[in-house]
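help with this.
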Amino acid sequence: HARGHRQRGPRGGGSLRAPAVNGARGVGDIRRWYQPVPPRPSLEGLLACSWSARPDGWHRLVPDACIDVLWLSTGDIWMCGPEETAWFFQLPSGVVAAGVRFRPGVLPSLIGFHAHTVLNRRMRWRALVGDDNERALLRRLAAADCDTSRMLVLENEVATLAATGGCLDPLAEAVLAMVTQHPRARAAEVAAAMSITTRQLHRRCLSSFGYSVSTLSRIVRFHRFWSIAELAAPGTPLAAVAHDAGYSDHAHLVRDCRAITGAPPGRFLAESFATFPDMSDPYKTGPRFTATLAS
């Protein structure tokens, strides 16, 4: 995926050195190679964003439950499935990329596949849509002469999928809304709110998101933390941010941050640069956290 981007930092553990939140970090760095833009209004229910990138060096990507479809100037189109933990990538120097980021649960519904079959996987687009469809899309992308036109081509492809593909799963949207708005909700509570059993909820979440509802909640809660941390006033204690994000205590945040990103919270925030608050991501928008997934 091309999301949660940052230059590769040292791997491994380390103590929490930064006791307080500092403001936005590294925005100038990210703007040199990664440019997200909001999708056209008619696609806001399907896409989190469209983006272009000119990556150089190693970058770490953090899970957000989304699926990306991306074109590389090498002449390839890839689908990047949802991930459970951060991963690193490096492309050859000079490679240009453009992509669209599907909101969680959307692409499996449109094309008709189970998200858990692409969990933690990167695969060729043709494996999902067939050789002929991929070749036709590659021709249109080859004719596009700039980042904006390539993103337009990809958004047109999404519009075609929406017009000819399957319908979105309303239960998936409802589950996302609930775990976004209620970060401490347990699987049994979510299932009860959906009027299904926990076993049914587990099966439906695997199909739509690739995750169990507990893993989905963990990722959403972490993005809530990241959003609050980026928007917090300088000097705000991380423990206070963790509480506001829905963590039971600071240790809970540390465990989740290490599991998802490979780093403790202080180091992660020092190394990371988020794409918000300049634009919405799948979980928040504007100066206050709001559940945009269900809107």
Observations:
- The beta strands are 34-37, 47-53, 59-61, 67-72, 76-80, 87-89, 97-102, 122-124.
- The radius of gyration is 19 Å.
